[in-house]
Amino acid sequence: MARASSMFITCSTSRSRNALDQGSPDLLASRGPMTRRRVIAIAANEVILQGRFTPFSFGARRVWATVASSPAGREADVHFRESPSMDVDEWVDWVLSVEPDIVGFAAYVWSFSLFLRVAERVRALRPACTIVFGGPSARPQMFDLPQFRAHAGLLDALVLNEGEWTFAALAALPSLDTASLATVQGLALHARGAWYETAEPPKRALDDLPSPTQLGMIPAGRTAAIETYRGCPMSCSFCQWGKSDVPDRVFSAAYIAADFRALAALGTPNVHLADAGLNLNSRGFKSLAEAERETGFLRTRRLHAAVYPTQLKDEHLSFLASIERPQLDIGIQSFNPEALASAGRHFRESRFARMVETLRELAEVETELILGLPGDSPESFRVSFERALELGCRLRVFHCLVLPDALMVRDVEQNAIDFDPVTLMVRSCRGWTAKDLLRTREYVAEVARQRGGDVLSNLWTMPETHGADGQQARGDGPSAAFEIGAEMFERVRGIVGRATRGAWTVRSVRRERARVLLDVEVRGQPLAIEAAVSSVTAQAFRRVRGIAFSYSTRGGPPDAATLRELVAVTDPLVEPARDVLGAAERVKLTVVE
Ligand code: SF4
User: Fold this and answer.
1) Which of the listed residues 285, 300, 324 is the one where a domain comes to its end?
2) Cα–chain center distance at 506
3) What total number of domains does the chain contain?
4) Where does the B12-binding domain lie (predicted)?
5) Of 217, 267, 434, 561, whose CB has the highest number of CB atoms within 10 Å?
6) Is residue 18 located within the same domain as residue 98?
7) What does each C-alpha distance from 379 to 193, 312, 334 come to in angstroms?
């Protein structure tokens, strides 16, 4: 990730703008009673990503398009600035130069403190200006943090959740005093030392939203955004979307097709699906597929999208096969069932690896893990990390963030989280001490460096591997398993012999990454036993003191005598398994009963 300090985009919209003058009749009909043209400024700080993926502040542009297309906006001068600049003076100069009556800042994790400092200066230099924060970090919870508590009264309002219509309603107020602001639905206001929220706005049809793409309000040559629905059906505790509404509103195929046509005319090289996932809303997907059938836009432009492998259906695979090879993100986050359950995230192990393989035939696949998830641990993170690397896809590891509406307010006591109030990065939490996090960060950074990936403050990337890791994951390369040494072999052989009164013979004992594999012979029949760390193993025959045991036979299921012996064998095998796995991971394994 890099910041391009010289890039910025500044635009204004006024009545003379042709694109807006072609708006719908109801937008054109109303002319407000204001005597002085109101000036509205919207500011967005963008993160420039290197390479082919170069998105921009699409959400802020949606707000800009909605305000500029509204009756009040058409009577106003609306200025928009998007820049990666982190220079407070530069932002203050721009705001003052347009002399706004209202300024709205798009607040994200990376831009919240920047815009707070800008707002402080604007408040001092232009006291009558109404200052509003919108975006994912515009939440009262942010002002409960010690660093920002003193700023709670600085802003006039926070725009909560979907900001387009709310900001347009605020911009249309004849007077911007506190009593008038309180009549706008969807705001948080600060009065007498506390925040309160105004009424929730009604949900409007998504097709009513003016499209910045169709109105010519997006930059050329960048990765554009397409939305097909809003919200997410899942509720992962670490994600702000986990609190969003049931995704029952979708954009129509006609709307998306019009966006595609506008993007084709603009020469857009690639698009990013701004939805929670390609396959999490069947009606949204239907609109997308229909728009693509009608325009063929994605046949020659790359689509970047998130997918959830265990929810993939044939229709998704056919769609992906029909467009230019897409780039798909798979958020694994963790393979640890306990950490996933604690985050409220569903995961079906049985389908996962197979679907990833299928997707790799059709797309560039990137996987994602979170380091420092509450309920995870250094040991189980390492196992997740190894397993993700084994998949052979490009892997991104993010340091866990404590976001508003997410971990900042959900399961707070249970998770015992301490976090940095500016970066929002977890410093310690349930399962992780501060030292654990530092050590694991160093470990991941070292692997990233060795593999030629990126090492950033809260993100590490490992390039795709076409070699050993990927081959092993697909079972078509040489095995990484190796014998555990004569002494350990004798120890295991003795344990198994005693526990089964000589009925079982151990043929081999190997360690393969985070598993110990035993091949035994039971009354002339082969039996394979696997011992792995319990906290990262979804299915098991038995779990004993942090070790999960499973078995497989050739032919039918084991008979009753073999099952009894399996139970008898697993108890005494726990210690050698822990010794082998602990030595392999160079960590002390946690005990999970
Ligand atoms: S992480 Fe993905 S699936 Fe979970 S709530 Fe967020 S968007 Fe939805």
Assistant:
1) 324
2) 46
3) 4
4) 35-181
5) 217
6) yes
7) 44, 30, 12
Q: How far apart are CA 46 and CA 55, in angstroms?
A: 9
What the block records as the tokens of 142 is 């942010």
CATH of the domain at 404: 3.30.750
Whole-model pTM over 0.80: no
Query: Who lines ligand 1 at CB under 6 A?
Result: 232, 234-236, 239, 241-242, 276, 331
Q: What is the CATH number of the domain that holds 296?
A: 3.30.750.210
Which tokens is 384 given?
A: 């997740």
**410 and 483 inside one domain:** no
| Residue-number span of the structural domain to which 248 is assigned | 219-324
Q: What is the ipTM score, two decimals? A: 0.99
Asked if residue 376 and residue 510 are part of one domain, the reply reads no
> Which residue among 241, 333, 370 has the greatest number of ligand 1 atoms within 8 angstroms of its CB, and so is best to mutate?
241
For residue 191, what is the DSSP state? E
Residue 209 lies in a domain: no
Place of tokens 């169709």: 214
Best residue among 229, 235, 236 to mutate for probing ligand 1's pocket (most ligand atoms within 8 Å of CB) is 236
Q: In terms of domains, do 421 and 467 share one?
A: yes
What is the rounded distance in angstroms from the CA atom of residue 6 to the CA atom of residue 21? 32
CA torsion sign for 357, 358, 364, 368 is negative
Contacts of 339 (CB under 8 A, 6+ apart): 333, 373, 374, 375, 376, 380, 431
pLDDT in tens, 188-233: 999 989 999 999 999 999 999 999 999 999 999 999 999 999 989 8
Co-location of 25 and 61 in the same domain: yes
Among 276, 293, 324, the domain boundary falls at: 324
Q: Which residue, by CA, sits nearest to atom 4 of ligand 1? A: 236
Contacts of 571 (CB under 8 A, 6+ apart): 499, 544
Measured CA to CA, the distance from residue 98 to residue 39 in angstroms comes to 8
Length of the chain (residues): 593
Secondary structure (3-state) at 63? helix
310 and 438 both lie in a single domain: no
62: Cα within 13 Å, side-chain hemisphere: 21
Query: Are 406 and 464 found together in one domain?
Result: yes
Judge whether 210 lies within some domain. Answer: no
Pocket probe for ligand 1: among 234, 245, 279, 367, the residue whose CB has the most ligand atoms within 8 Å is 234
Q: Are 120 and 71 within one domain?
A: yes
- For the stretch 118-145, what's the b/e string if a residue is b when 16 or more beta carbons lie within 10 angstroms of its beta carbon? bbbbbbeebeebbbbbbbbbbbbbbbeb
Question: What is the SS3 assignment for 555?
Answer: coil
Q: Is residue 233 part of a domain?
A: yes
DSSP classification of residue 131: E
